[in-house]
Amino acid sequence: MFFMQAMVLESWFDRLLVFDYRTRQEVIVNTRAARRFRRGDHVRIRYNGRMTHSIPPQITANYIEFANRNNCCIPNPIRALLFAQYGFF
Fold first, then answer.
1. Rounded to two decimals, what is the model's pTM?
2. I need a surface site. Which of 7, 29, 36, 66 has the fewest CB within 10 A?
3. Are 65 and 72 in contact (CB under 8 A)?
């Protein structure tokens, strides 16, 4: 299993657009639980490690949970990037 810590940028019926903190890229996450999450939520995603080569890449989540903002440990350069690109962090 692989894990991704990310921030939700958009939420649709069956998928999320997130910003992956580690790779600093947008990723589409296919999941039935998408409606539970809102823009700005910090999440921890468990998936099988497969990611498409599309732009943006896509994964299918096995499980998604809310991540405590204090436990996410978002480095300052990433906070600045999120603020510059999306207007929030």
1. 0.85
2. 66
3. no
